[in-house]
Amino acid sequence: MITAGIDMGIQTVKVVILKDGAVIARSKTFSGFEPTKAAEQAFEEALKTAKISKSDITQILATGAGMDMAPYANGTISMMSADAKAGVYLIPSARTIIDVGAEEARAVKCDERGVMADFVVNERCAAGAGTFIEAMARALEVKMEDMGPLSLKAERASPINASCVIFGESDVVTLIHRQESKPEIARAVFDAMADRVSSMVHRLGINPDVVLVGGVAKDVGFVASLKRKLGINILIPENPEYTGALGAALLATNRVKGAQK
Amino acid sequence: MKEKVADTKEYWRWQEYHYVVPNKSWKSKDVITAGVDVGSVGSKAAIMIDGEVYAWAITRTGSNSPDSAKKVMDMVLDGTGLKQSDIKYTVGTGYGRVNVPMANKAITEIACHAKGANYIWGSKVRTILDVGGQDIKAIHCDETGRVTSFLMNDKCAAGTGRGMEVFADLLKIPIEEIGQVSLSIDEEPPPVSCTCVAFAKTEAVGLLRKGWTKEKVLAAYTRAMAIRMANLVNRVGLEREFVVTGGQSKNMGIVSRVENILGVKALPAPNWREGGLDPMVAGAIGAAALAKALYEKQGK
Protein backbone atom coordinates (compact mmCIF):
# COMPACT_ATOMS: atom_id res chain seq x y z
CA MET A 1 0.00 0.00 0.00
CA ILE A 2 1.23 3.49 -0.89
CA THR A 3 0.29 6.58 1.14
CA ALA A 4 1.54 10.15 1.25
CA GLY A 5 1.82 13.00 3.74
CA ILE A 6 1.99 16.69 2.90
CA ASP A 7 3.26 19.10 5.53
CA MET A 8 2.17 22.64 4.63
CA GLY A 9 4.72 24.54 6.70
CA ILE A 10 4.85 28.31 6.91
CA GLN A 11 8.17 28.46 5.13
CA THR A 12 8.48 25.14 3.31
CA VAL A 13 6.17 22.42 2.04
CA LYS A 14 7.33 18.85 2.63
CA VAL A 15 6.03 15.68 0.97
CA VAL A 16 6.75 12.09 2.00
CA ILE A 17 5.59 8.97 0.14
CA LEU A 18 5.45 5.63 1.97
CA LYS A 19 5.23 2.17 0.49
CA ASP A 20 4.36 -0.62 2.91
CA GLY A 21 5.64 1.43 5.82
CA ALA A 22 8.95 2.49 4.24
CA VAL A 23 9.81 5.91 2.82
CA ILE A 24 10.24 5.77 -0.96
CA ALA A 25 10.35 9.51 -1.69
CA ARG A 26 10.63 12.86 0.00
CA SER A 27 10.75 16.37 -1.41
CA LYS A 28 10.39 19.92 -0.24
CA THR A 29 9.98 23.39 -1.67
CA PHE A 30 9.48 26.92 -0.41
CA SER A 31 5.85 27.74 0.38
CA GLY A 32 6.14 31.22 -1.16
CA PHE A 33 3.06 33.27 -1.94
CA GLU A 34 1.13 30.35 -3.38
CA PRO A 35 1.51 27.43 -1.01
CA THR A 36 -0.96 25.27 -2.95
CA LYS A 37 1.11 25.54 -6.12
CA ALA A 38 4.28 24.93 -4.15
CA ALA A 39 2.77 21.78 -2.70
CA GLU A 40 1.70 20.55 -6.16
CA GLN A 41 5.25 21.05 -7.35
CA ALA A 42 6.77 19.21 -4.38
CA PHE A 43 4.24 16.44 -4.85
CA GLU A 44 5.10 15.99 -8.54
CA GLU A 45 8.77 15.77 -7.65
CA ALA A 46 8.13 13.12 -5.01
CA LEU A 47 6.07 11.10 -7.50
CA LYS A 48 8.97 11.28 -9.95
CA THR A 49 11.45 10.07 -7.33
CA ALA A 50 9.12 7.23 -6.31
CA LYS A 51 8.49 6.39 -9.99
CA ILE A 52 4.76 6.14 -9.41
CA SER A 53 1.73 8.13 -10.48
CA LYS A 54 -0.76 9.85 -8.24
CA SER A 55 -3.37 7.15 -8.84
CA ASP A 56 -1.08 4.58 -7.18
CA ILE A 57 -1.54 6.35 -3.86
CA THR A 58 -4.36 5.06 -1.68
CA GLN A 59 -4.55 7.87 0.83
CA ILE A 60 -3.03 11.36 1.25
CA LEU A 61 -3.16 13.30 4.51
CA ALA A 62 -2.12 16.92 5.03
CA THR A 63 -0.73 18.57 8.14
CA GLY A 64 1.05 21.81 9.05
CA ALA A 65 -0.09 25.41 9.54
CA GLY A 66 -1.49 25.67 6.00
CA MET A 67 -3.05 22.18 5.86
CA ASP A 68 -6.34 23.58 4.58
CA MET A 69 -4.55 24.75 1.43
CA ALA A 70 -3.05 21.36 0.65
CA PRO A 71 -3.83 19.94 -2.80
CA TYR A 72 -4.89 16.31 -3.38
CA ALA A 73 -5.43 15.62 0.33
CA ASN A 74 -8.12 13.16 1.47
CA GLY A 75 -8.04 14.68 4.93
CA THR A 76 -5.97 16.51 7.50
CA ILE A 77 -4.25 15.55 10.72
CA SER A 78 -2.98 17.74 13.55
CA MET A 79 0.70 18.58 13.68
CA MET A 80 0.91 17.17 17.19
CA SER A 81 -0.47 13.77 16.16
CA ALA A 82 1.86 13.68 13.17
CA ASP A 83 4.89 14.54 15.33
CA ALA A 84 4.03 11.83 17.87
CA LYS A 85 3.48 9.17 15.26
CA ALA A 86 6.59 9.89 13.23
CA GLY A 87 8.77 10.56 16.28
CA VAL A 88 8.19 7.07 17.65
CA TYR A 89 8.47 5.54 14.16
CA LEU A 90 11.93 7.13 13.73
CA ILE A 91 13.15 6.63 17.29
CA PRO A 92 11.07 3.97 19.11
CA SER A 93 12.20 5.13 22.57
CA ALA A 94 10.90 8.68 21.95
CA ARG A 95 8.37 9.88 24.56
CA THR A 96 8.80 13.64 24.24
CA ILE A 97 9.05 15.19 20.80
CA ILE A 98 10.12 18.79 20.38
CA ASP A 99 9.35 20.24 16.97
CA VAL A 100 10.88 23.61 16.09
CA GLY A 101 9.91 25.04 12.72
CA ALA A 102 10.02 28.45 11.08
CA GLU A 103 7.29 30.07 13.13
CA GLU A 104 6.20 27.32 15.44
CA ALA A 105 7.71 25.48 18.33
CA ARG A 106 5.85 22.75 20.12
CA ALA A 107 6.47 19.82 22.38
CA VAL A 108 4.41 16.64 22.36
CA LYS A 109 4.28 13.82 24.90
CA CYS A 110 3.34 10.42 23.58
CA ASP A 111 3.14 6.72 24.40
CA GLU A 112 5.05 3.81 22.89
CA ARG A 113 2.56 3.56 20.01
CA GLY A 114 3.18 7.19 19.03
CA VAL A 115 -0.19 8.36 20.29
CA MET A 116 -0.14 11.92 21.55
CA ALA A 117 -0.92 12.37 25.26
CA ASP A 118 -0.31 16.08 25.84
CA PHE A 119 1.32 19.03 24.11
CA VAL A 120 2.34 22.69 24.38
CA VAL A 121 2.81 25.27 21.61
CA ASN A 122 4.30 28.76 21.34
CA GLU A 123 1.01 30.28 20.27
CA ARG A 124 1.69 33.95 20.70
CA CYS A 125 5.39 34.54 20.29
CA ALA A 126 8.01 33.93 17.60
CA ALA A 127 11.00 34.13 19.95
CA GLY A 128 11.37 30.35 20.21
CA ALA A 129 11.10 29.53 16.51
CA GLY A 130 13.30 29.46 13.42
CA THR A 131 12.28 32.98 12.40
CA PHE A 132 14.26 34.19 15.39
CA ILE A 133 17.51 32.73 13.98
CA GLU A 134 16.68 34.16 10.58
CA ALA A 135 16.08 37.67 11.90
CA MET A 136 19.21 37.58 14.04
CA ALA A 137 21.32 36.24 11.16
CA ARG A 138 20.13 39.19 9.10
CA ALA A 139 21.07 41.62 11.85
CA LEU A 140 24.49 39.96 12.12
CA GLU A 141 24.92 39.85 8.33
CA VAL A 142 25.63 36.14 8.48
CA LYS A 143 23.98 33.41 6.39
CA MET A 144 21.37 31.57 8.42
CA GLU A 145 23.03 28.20 7.86
CA ASP A 146 26.36 29.60 9.08
CA MET A 147 24.90 30.70 12.41
CA GLY A 148 25.15 27.27 14.04
CA PRO A 149 28.80 26.47 13.19
CA LEU A 150 29.73 30.06 14.07
CA SER A 151 28.11 29.83 17.48
CA LEU A 152 30.11 26.72 18.34
CA LYS A 153 33.29 28.81 18.19
CA ALA A 154 32.14 31.04 21.03
CA GLU A 155 33.91 30.84 24.35
CA ARG A 156 31.07 32.48 26.24
CA ALA A 157 27.66 33.98 25.53
CA SER A 158 26.69 37.63 25.66
CA PRO A 159 23.18 37.84 27.04
CA ILE A 160 20.47 39.21 24.76
CA ASN A 161 16.77 39.78 25.17
CA ALA A 162 15.35 36.29 24.95
CA SER A 163 11.77 37.35 25.00
CA CYS A 164 11.06 38.88 21.63
CA VAL A 165 12.30 38.74 18.02
CA ILE A 166 11.91 42.48 17.58
CA PHE A 167 13.77 43.38 20.78
CA GLY A 168 16.36 40.69 20.09
CA GLU A 169 17.21 42.45 16.82
CA SER A 170 17.93 45.71 18.63
CA ASP A 171 20.02 43.83 21.17
CA VAL A 172 22.08 42.19 18.47
CA VAL A 173 22.75 45.58 16.91
CA THR A 174 23.86 46.89 20.32
CA LEU A 175 26.25 43.95 20.72
CA ILE A 176 27.67 44.56 17.25
CA HIS A 177 28.33 48.19 18.19
CA ARG A 178 29.94 46.99 21.39
CA GLN A 179 32.21 44.96 19.14
CA GLU A 180 31.30 41.61 20.63
CA SER A 181 32.51 38.83 18.34
CA LYS A 182 30.07 37.28 15.91
CA PRO A 183 30.45 33.74 17.34
CA GLU A 184 29.51 35.04 20.77
CA ILE A 185 26.48 36.90 19.47
CA ALA A 186 25.41 33.82 17.50
CA ARG A 187 25.76 31.72 20.64
CA ALA A 188 23.65 34.27 22.53
CA VAL A 189 20.93 34.00 19.89
CA PHE A 190 20.73 30.22 20.26
CA ASP A 191 20.88 30.40 24.05
CA ALA A 192 18.00 32.86 24.03
CA MET A 193 15.96 30.63 21.78
CA ALA A 194 16.79 27.50 23.76
CA ASP A 195 15.65 29.37 26.87
CA ARG A 196 12.22 29.90 25.34
CA VAL A 197 11.91 26.36 24.06
CA SER A 198 13.12 24.74 27.28
CA SER A 199 10.70 26.73 29.43
CA MET A 200 7.92 25.57 27.13
CA VAL A 201 9.07 21.95 27.39
CA HIS A 202 9.30 22.22 31.18
CA ARG A 203 5.68 23.35 31.25
CA LEU A 204 4.80 20.07 29.62
CA GLY A 205 7.21 17.94 31.68
CA ILE A 206 9.99 15.85 30.20
CA ASN A 207 9.66 12.11 29.58
CA PRO A 208 12.81 10.58 28.13
CA ASP A 209 13.82 9.95 25.46
CA VAL A 210 13.62 13.46 24.09
CA VAL A 211 13.66 13.77 20.32
CA LEU A 212 14.13 17.04 18.44
CA VAL A 213 12.57 17.40 14.98
CA GLY A 214 11.62 20.18 12.53
CA GLY A 215 13.89 22.26 10.31
CA VAL A 216 15.66 23.88 13.26
CA ALA A 217 16.81 20.44 14.50
CA LYS A 218 19.42 20.60 11.72
CA ASP A 219 20.99 23.64 13.31
CA VAL A 220 23.99 22.48 15.34
CA GLY A 221 24.05 25.77 17.26
CA PHE A 222 20.49 25.41 18.48
CA VAL A 223 20.96 21.75 19.34
CA ALA A 224 24.05 22.54 21.45
CA SER A 225 22.24 25.33 23.31
CA LEU A 226 19.12 23.25 23.92
CA LYS A 227 21.16 20.32 25.26
CA ARG A 228 22.95 22.67 27.64
CA LYS A 229 19.71 24.25 28.76
CA LEU A 230 17.75 21.03 29.28
CA GLY A 231 20.75 19.24 30.75
CA ILE A 232 19.83 15.98 29.03
CA ASN A 233 20.72 14.21 25.83
CA ILE A 234 18.56 14.93 22.82
CA LEU A 235 18.15 12.51 19.93
CA ILE A 236 17.80 13.77 16.39
CA PRO A 237 16.56 11.58 13.55
CA GLU A 238 17.77 11.85 9.99
CA ASN A 239 15.82 14.33 7.84
CA PRO A 240 14.17 15.92 10.88
CA GLU A 241 12.32 18.48 8.77
CA TYR A 242 10.21 15.72 7.17
CA THR A 243 8.79 14.51 10.48
CA GLY A 244 5.39 16.15 10.04
CA ALA A 245 4.94 14.86 6.50
CA LEU A 246 6.10 11.39 7.54
CA GLY A 247 3.65 11.35 10.44
CA ALA A 248 0.82 12.31 8.09
CA ALA A 249 1.78 9.52 5.69
CA LEU A 250 1.98 6.97 8.53
CA LEU A 251 -1.42 8.03 9.83
CA ALA A 252 -2.80 7.81 6.30
CA THR A 253 -1.71 4.16 6.30
CA ASN A 254 -3.42 3.63 9.65
CA ARG A 255 -6.60 5.18 8.33
CA VAL A 256 -6.72 2.89 5.34
CA LYS A 257 -6.06 -0.14 7.54
CA GLY A 258 -8.71 1.02 10.00
CA ALA A 259 -11.24 1.36 7.20
CA GLN A 260 -10.40 -2.10 5.88
CA LYS A 261 -11.15 -3.72 9.22
CA MET B 1 9.96 37.16 -2.76
CA LYS B 2 12.46 39.94 -2.19
CA GLU B 3 11.76 43.25 -3.85
CA LYS B 4 13.90 43.90 -6.86
CA VAL B 5 14.56 47.53 -6.04
CA ALA B 6 15.55 48.13 -2.46
CA ASP B 7 13.39 50.80 -0.84
CA THR B 8 15.77 52.63 1.43
CA LYS B 9 13.29 55.18 2.78
CA GLU B 10 13.18 55.01 6.54
CA TYR B 11 9.48 54.97 7.20
CA TRP B 12 10.06 54.38 10.88
CA ARG B 13 11.94 57.65 11.37
CA TRP B 14 10.25 60.21 13.59
CA GLN B 15 11.08 63.84 14.22
CA GLU B 16 13.94 64.70 16.54
CA TYR B 17 13.76 68.24 17.90
CA HIS B 18 14.46 70.60 20.74
CA TYR B 19 12.40 73.44 22.12
CA VAL B 20 13.08 76.38 24.41
CA VAL B 21 10.10 78.07 26.09
CA PRO B 22 10.12 81.65 24.77
CA ASN B 23 10.12 84.76 26.99
CA LYS B 24 11.53 82.86 29.88
CA SER B 25 14.91 83.59 31.41
CA TRP B 26 17.04 82.21 34.15
CA LYS B 27 19.27 83.75 36.79
CA SER B 28 22.17 82.11 38.55
CA LYS B 29 20.27 81.88 41.85
CA ASP B 30 17.48 79.87 40.30
CA VAL B 31 17.21 76.17 41.02
CA ILE B 32 17.99 74.70 37.62
CA THR B 33 17.40 70.96 37.35
CA ALA B 34 17.37 68.44 34.53
CA GLY B 35 15.80 65.11 33.74
CA VAL B 36 17.31 62.72 31.20
CA ASP B 37 15.16 59.83 30.03
CA VAL B 38 17.20 57.36 27.98
CA GLY B 39 14.56 55.12 26.49
CA SER B 40 15.16 52.06 24.35
CA VAL B 41 14.18 53.94 21.20
CA GLY B 42 14.08 57.64 22.11
CA SER B 43 16.20 59.74 24.45
CA LYS B 44 14.52 62.74 26.03
CA ALA B 45 15.81 65.56 28.23
CA ALA B 46 14.05 68.42 30.04
CA ILE B 47 15.35 71.42 31.96
CA MET B 48 13.33 73.10 34.70
CA ILE B 49 13.85 76.49 36.29
CA ASP B 50 12.44 76.63 39.81
CA GLY B 51 10.17 73.73 38.97
CA GLU B 52 8.90 75.08 35.66
CA VAL B 53 9.74 73.55 32.30
CA TYR B 54 12.18 75.69 30.35
CA ALA B 55 13.43 73.47 27.53
CA TRP B 56 13.25 69.92 26.22
CA ALA B 57 14.75 67.75 23.50
CA ILE B 58 14.06 64.42 21.85
CA THR B 59 16.47 62.31 19.84
CA ARG B 60 16.84 58.71 18.79
CA THR B 61 18.73 56.50 21.23
CA GLY B 62 21.97 55.19 19.74
CA SER B 63 23.63 51.92 20.52
CA ASN B 64 25.25 53.33 23.63
CA SER B 65 23.32 54.84 26.57
CA PRO B 66 25.96 57.30 27.89
CA ASP B 67 26.48 58.76 24.41
CA SER B 68 22.72 59.08 23.89
CA ALA B 69 22.40 60.85 27.25
CA LYS B 70 25.19 63.29 26.34
CA LYS B 71 23.71 63.90 22.91
CA VAL B 72 20.23 64.73 24.17
CA MET B 73 21.70 66.87 26.98
CA ASP B 74 23.70 68.90 24.45
CA MET B 75 20.55 69.31 22.41
CA VAL B 76 18.46 70.55 25.30
CA LEU B 77 21.15 73.04 26.41
CA ASP B 78 21.44 74.38 22.88
CA GLY B 79 19.94 77.87 22.63
CA THR B 80 19.35 78.28 26.36
CA GLY B 81 22.70 79.87 27.22
CA LEU B 82 22.99 77.31 30.00
CA LYS B 83 26.00 75.12 30.54
CA GLN B 84 26.06 71.69 32.08
CA SER B 85 27.67 73.21 35.18
CA ASP B 86 24.67 75.53 35.70
CA ILE B 87 22.47 72.53 36.38
CA LYS B 88 22.20 71.88 40.09
CA TYR B 89 20.78 68.40 40.02
CA THR B 90 20.06 65.84 37.30
CA VAL B 91 17.90 62.74 37.51
CA GLY B 92 18.40 59.94 34.99
CA THR B 93 15.51 57.67 34.09
CA GLY B 94 14.37 55.20 31.45
CA TYR B 95 15.74 51.93 30.15
CA GLY B 96 19.32 53.29 30.18
CA ARG B 97 19.02 55.29 33.41
CA VAL B 98 21.99 53.70 35.15
CA ASN B 99 24.18 54.85 32.28
CA VAL B 100 23.43 58.57 32.40
CA PRO B 101 26.87 60.06 33.20
CA MET B 102 25.66 63.51 34.34
CA ALA B 103 22.93 62.16 36.63
CA ASN B 104 23.11 62.64 40.40
CA LYS B 105 20.54 59.91 40.85
CA ALA B 106 18.62 57.33 38.81
CA ILE B 107 14.85 56.91 39.31
CA THR B 108 12.55 54.43 37.54
CA GLU B 109 10.63 55.75 34.58
CA ILE B 110 7.38 54.69 36.24
CA ALA B 111 7.80 57.25 39.02
CA CYS B 112 8.99 59.85 36.51
CA HIS B 113 6.08 59.35 34.12
CA ALA B 114 3.56 59.69 36.93
CA LYS B 115 5.25 62.88 38.14
CA GLY B 116 5.53 64.18 34.58
CA ALA B 117 1.86 63.49 33.81
CA ASN B 118 0.96 65.27 37.04
CA TYR B 119 2.97 68.28 35.84
CA ILE B 120 1.57 68.29 32.29
CA TRP B 121 -2.13 67.70 33.04
CA GLY B 122 -2.41 68.59 36.73
CA SER B 123 -3.37 66.84 39.95
CA LYS B 124 -6.57 65.29 38.57
CA VAL B 125 -4.62 62.62 36.64
CA ARG B 126 -5.04 59.15 38.17
CA THR B 127 -4.35 56.66 35.37
CA ILE B 128 -1.50 56.87 32.89
CA LEU B 129 -0.91 54.67 29.89
CA ASP B 130 2.72 55.04 28.88
CA VAL B 131 3.63 53.44 25.60
CA GLY B 132 7.34 53.58 25.03
CA GLY B 133 9.68 52.04 22.51
CA GLN B 134 10.03 48.72 24.27
CA ASP B 135 7.30 48.48 26.85
CA ILE B 136 3.74 49.34 27.74
CA LYS B 137 2.95 50.54 31.25
CA ALA B 138 -0.31 51.26 32.99
CA ILE B 139 0.29 53.43 36.05
CA HIS B 140 -2.08 54.55 38.78
CA CYS B 141 -1.07 57.60 40.83
CA ASP B 142 -2.36 59.97 43.51
CA GLU B 143 -2.97 63.70 43.27
CA THR B 144 0.70 64.48 43.90
CA GLY B 145 1.86 62.26 41.05
CA ARG B 146 3.09 59.52 43.37
CA VAL B 147 2.71 55.98 41.99
CA THR B 148 0.14 53.85 43.81
CA SER B 149 0.29 50.82 41.50
CA PHE B 150 1.44 49.85 38.05
CA LEU B 151 1.59 47.01 35.53
CA MET B 152 3.98 46.64 32.69
CA ASN B 153 4.61 44.48 29.69
CA ASP B 154 8.22 44.41 28.62
CA LYS B 155 8.52 40.92 27.21
CA CYS B 156 6.92 41.49 23.86
CA ALA B 157 7.12 44.17 21.16
CA ALA B 158 3.37 44.03 20.43
CA GLY B 159 1.90 47.48 20.78
CA THR B 160 5.18 49.18 21.61
CA GLY B 161 6.69 51.98 19.58
CA ARG B 162 9.29 49.61 18.20
CA GLY B 163 6.56 47.28 16.99
CA MET B 164 4.83 50.22 15.31
CA GLU B 165 8.07 51.19 13.57
CA VAL B 166 8.37 47.68 12.16
CA PHE B 167 4.82 47.93 10.85
CA ALA B 168 5.36 51.40 9.38
CA ASP B 169 8.30 49.95 7.47
CA LEU B 170 6.35 46.90 6.33
CA LEU B 171 3.44 48.98 5.02
CA LYS B 172 5.70 51.80 3.83
CA ILE B 173 3.75 54.47 5.68
CA PRO B 174 5.72 57.16 7.54
CA ILE B 175 5.44 56.53 11.28
CA GLU B 176 4.07 59.98 12.02
CA GLU B 177 1.16 59.36 9.67
CA ILE B 178 0.16 55.86 10.69
CA GLY B 179 -2.36 57.04 13.28
CA GLN B 180 -4.24 59.13 10.74
CA VAL B 181 -3.95 56.48 8.04
CA SER B 182 -5.31 53.80 10.38
CA LEU B 183 -8.40 55.96 10.94
CA SER B 184 -9.03 56.61 7.24
CA ILE B 185 -11.28 53.60 6.77
CA ASP B 186 -15.06 53.34 6.41
CA GLU B 187 -15.54 50.45 8.74
CA GLU B 188 -13.29 49.08 11.47
CA PRO B 189 -12.01 45.63 10.41
CA PRO B 190 -11.62 42.81 12.95
CA PRO B 191 -8.28 42.98 14.76
CA VAL B 192 -5.40 40.82 13.52
CA SER B 193 -5.28 37.59 15.51
CA CYS B 194 -1.53 37.53 16.06
CA THR B 195 -0.15 39.88 18.63
CA CYS B 196 3.50 38.89 18.16
CA VAL B 197 4.99 41.45 15.76
CA ALA B 198 6.86 38.74 13.85
CA PHE B 199 3.64 36.75 13.37
CA ALA B 200 1.52 39.83 12.73
CA LYS B 201 3.85 40.74 9.89
CA THR B 202 3.17 37.35 8.29
CA GLU B 203 -0.55 37.79 8.89
CA ALA B 204 -0.48 41.30 7.42
CA VAL B 205 1.27 40.09 4.27
CA GLY B 206 -1.46 37.46 3.95
CA LEU B 207 -4.19 40.08 4.31
CA LEU B 208 -2.56 42.33 1.71
CA ARG B 209 -2.39 39.35 -0.62
CA LYS B 210 -6.08 38.77 -0.03
CA GLY B 211 -6.68 42.27 -1.35
CA TRP B 212 -7.00 44.26 1.85
CA THR B 213 -5.85 47.87 1.56
CA LYS B 214 -2.87 49.07 3.58
CA GLU B 215 -5.25 51.28 5.56
CA LYS B 216 -7.43 48.33 6.49
CA VAL B 217 -4.47 46.17 7.49
CA LEU B 218 -3.08 49.00 9.59
CA ALA B 219 -6.49 49.52 11.23
CA ALA B 220 -6.70 45.80 12.07
CA TYR B 221 -3.22 45.83 13.55
CA THR B 222 -3.74 49.07 15.49
CA ARG B 223 -6.99 47.70 16.87
CA ALA B 224 -5.25 44.55 18.15
CA MET B 225 -2.58 46.66 19.83
CA ALA B 226 -5.16 49.01 21.37
CA ILE B 227 -6.96 46.00 22.86
CA ARG B 228 -3.71 44.91 24.53
CA MET B 229 -3.16 48.36 25.98
CA ALA B 230 -6.75 48.72 27.17
CA ASN B 231 -6.51 45.34 28.91
CA LEU B 232 -3.42 46.48 30.78
CA VAL B 233 -5.19 49.70 31.86
CA ASN B 234 -8.23 47.78 33.02
CA ARG B 235 -6.05 45.39 35.00
CA VAL B 236 -4.34 48.22 36.87
CA GLY B 237 -7.75 49.79 37.43
CA LEU B 238 -9.02 52.68 35.34
CA GLU B 239 -9.76 55.83 37.32
CA ARG B 240 -10.26 59.23 35.76
CA GLU B 241 -8.63 61.35 34.68
CA PHE B 242 -6.87 59.17 32.14
CA VAL B 243 -3.88 60.25 30.03
CA VAL B 244 -1.51 58.71 27.50
CA THR B 245 2.23 59.43 27.53
CA GLY B 246 5.24 58.18 25.59
CA GLY B 247 5.80 58.17 21.86
CA GLN B 248 2.52 56.42 21.05
CA SER B 249 0.55 59.29 22.62
CA LYS B 250 1.11 60.91 19.22
CA ASN B 251 -0.58 58.02 17.42
CA MET B 252 -4.21 59.06 17.16
CA GLY B 253 -5.13 55.65 15.78
CA ILE B 254 -4.01 54.11 19.06
CA VAL B 255 -5.33 56.78 21.41
CA SER B 256 -8.82 56.96 19.89
CA ARG B 257 -9.16 53.15 19.83
CA VAL B 258 -8.00 52.80 23.43
CA GLU B 259 -10.53 55.49 24.42
CA ASN B 260 -13.20 53.69 22.48
CA ILE B 261 -12.49 50.32 24.13
CA LEU B 262 -12.20 51.80 27.63
CA GLY B 263 -15.25 53.98 27.14
CA VAL B 264 -13.42 56.98 28.52
CA LYS B 265 -11.76 59.99 26.87
CA ALA B 266 -8.14 60.71 27.59
CA LEU B 267 -7.32 64.28 28.54
CA PRO B 268 -6.13 65.87 25.30
CA ALA B 269 -2.37 66.16 24.89
CA PRO B 270 -0.95 69.65 24.46
CA ASN B 271 0.00 70.36 20.85
CA TRP B 272 3.73 69.80 20.82
CA ARG B 273 4.05 71.20 17.32
CA GLU B 274 2.99 74.58 18.71
CA GLY B 275 5.18 74.56 21.79
CA GLY B 276 2.83 72.56 24.01
CA LEU B 277 4.44 70.18 26.49
CA ASP B 278 5.18 66.98 24.61
CA PRO B 279 3.75 63.85 26.34
CA MET B 280 6.70 61.93 24.91
CA VAL B 281 8.89 63.97 27.29
CA ALA B 282 6.70 63.25 30.34
CA GLY B 283 9.36 60.98 31.85
CA ALA B 284 12.13 63.57 31.48
CA ILE B 285 9.87 66.33 32.85
CA GLY B 286 8.99 64.15 35.83
CA ALA B 287 12.69 63.41 36.34
CA ALA B 288 13.53 67.13 36.31
CA ALA B 289 10.72 67.81 38.80
CA LEU B 290 11.96 65.03 41.10
CA ALA B 291 15.48 66.45 40.69
CA LYS B 292 14.29 69.74 42.14
CA ALA B 293 12.76 68.03 45.15
CA LEU B 294 15.93 66.00 45.69
CA TYR B 295 18.13 69.08 45.36
CA GLU B 296 16.11 70.96 47.96
CA LYS B 297 16.10 68.00 50.32
CA GLN B 298 19.86 67.71 49.95
CA GLY B 299 20.32 71.42 50.78
CA LYS B 300 18.48 71.05 54.06
Largest sheet of chain A: 5 strands, mixed
SSE succession of chain A: EEEHEEHEEEHHHHEHEH
Distance between the termini of chain B: 67 Å
Structural class of chain A: alpha/beta
The rounded Rg of chain A comes to 19 Å
Could you provide a short overview of the structure?
Chain A is an alpha/beta fold. Chain A is built from eight helices and ten strands.
What topology does this entry show?
The complex is a heterodimer of chains A (261) and B (300).
Chain A: E1 2-8, E2 12-19, E3 22-30, H1 35-50, E4 59-63, E5 75-76, H2 79-90, E6 96-100, E7 105-110, E8 116-121, H3 130-140, H4 144-151, H5 165-177, H6 182-204, E9 210-213, H7 220-230, E10 234-235, H8 243-260
Parallel strand pairs in A: 1-4, 4-5, 6-9, 9-10
Antiparallel strand pairs in A: 1-2, 2-3, 6-7, 7-8
Chain B: E1 17-20, E2 32-38, E3 42-49, E4 52-60, H1 65-77, E5 89-93, E6 105-106, H2 109-121, E7 127-131, E8 136-141, E9 147-153, H3 161-171, H4 178-183, H5 197-209, H6 214-236, E10 242-245, H7 252-262, H8 282-299
Parallel strand pairs in B: 2-5, 5-6, 7-10
Antiparallel strand pairs in B: 1-4, 2-3, 3-4, 7-8, 8-9
Description:
The complex is a heterodimer of chains A (261) and B (300). With 261 residues, chain A is of the alpha/beta class. Chain A has helices at 35-50, 79-90, 130-140, 144-151, 165-177, 182-204, 220-230, 243-260; strands at residues 2-8, 12-19, 22-30, 59-63, 75-76, 96-100, 105-110, 116-121, 210-213, 234-235. Chain A is built from 8 helices and 10 strands. In chain A, strands 3-2-1-4-5 form a 5-stranded mixed beta sheet. In chain A, strands 8-7-6-9-10 form a 5-stranded mixed beta sheet. Chain A starts with a strand and ends with a helix. The model of chain A has no long low-confidence stretch (mean pLDDT 92). Chain A folds into 2 domains: 1-91 and 239-261, 2-Layer Sandwich (Nucleotidyltransferase, domain 5), CATH 3.30.420.40; 94-236, Nucleotidyltransferase, domain 5 (2-Layer Sandwich). Chain B has 2 domains: 17-122 and 272-299, ATPase, nucleotide binding domain (Nucleotidyltransferase, domain 5); 151-262, ATPase, nucleotide binding domain (Nucleotidyltransferase, domain 5). Chain B has helices spanning 65-77, 109-121, 161-171, 178-183, 197-209, 214-236, 252-262, 282-299, and strands spanning 17-20, 32-38, 42-49, 52-60, 89-93, 105-106, 127-131, 136-141, 147-153, 242-245. The model of chain B has no long low-confidence stretch (mean pLDDT 92).
